[in-house]
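Consider the following input, taken from an annotated entry for FASCICLIN-like arabinogalactan-protein 12 (Actinidia rufa).
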Amino acid sequence: MMNQLAPPLSLLLLLFFLSTTQAQTPAQPPAPSGPPNITRILEKAGQFVIFLRLMGTTQEANQLNNQLNNSNNGMTIFAPSDSAFSSLQAGTLNSLSDEQKVELVQFHVVPTFLSTSQFQTVSNPLRTQAGDNREGQFPLNVTTSGNQVNISTGVVNTTVVNTIFTDNQIAVYQVDKVLLPLSIFGPQTPAEAPAPVTTKKKKAAADAPSSDDSDSSGGVGLAVNVMVVVMFIGVGVYAAFVL
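Applying the prediction step yields:
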């Protein structure tokens, strides 16, 4: 009776084989999440609300994502945290024009992929999306000291404090200060004072003779005329006397 209720040996062997095979099958890697998206990367990191808002209002988030999807050059982004923006002087962002806000975001983006090891060999100044990297414009200099990456804009000095995301196309690094470019936040050269203008009217007035000069010249002429008349009368009287 007990032998009839026991499962067949072949069934036990089959169950054992299936369980062993499933245990040895490696876990499948997660499905790719699509092309890199800077907005999703920073949202997942969770401490870049102000930078994300600035990228959104300037339309730079869409611009960068389109560039990532349609270019093979790669990209490096230095992302200031919310605490970095909080350390700015009150009203700094509100004082900027729309164009300056765009340039500020672009100054945090290098249009090539840079790994941490490549920072040791890059040529300074780096050229950012903001454009002109000449002194006084948008120069960005990177130096290394051991494993530390230092960044200088000519206005602020900061360091890379964390790697947020990296693959072969995009690298996103956290910085502890907002990168302020010289072109916007550097000392402004005072405008030269306009040269004094000399009008022709003033010059003509200066060249014209004064009333005193006219009076004096007129007085001299009158005296001469009187002397001539007196001499003429004197000559006539003398001639009459002689005759």
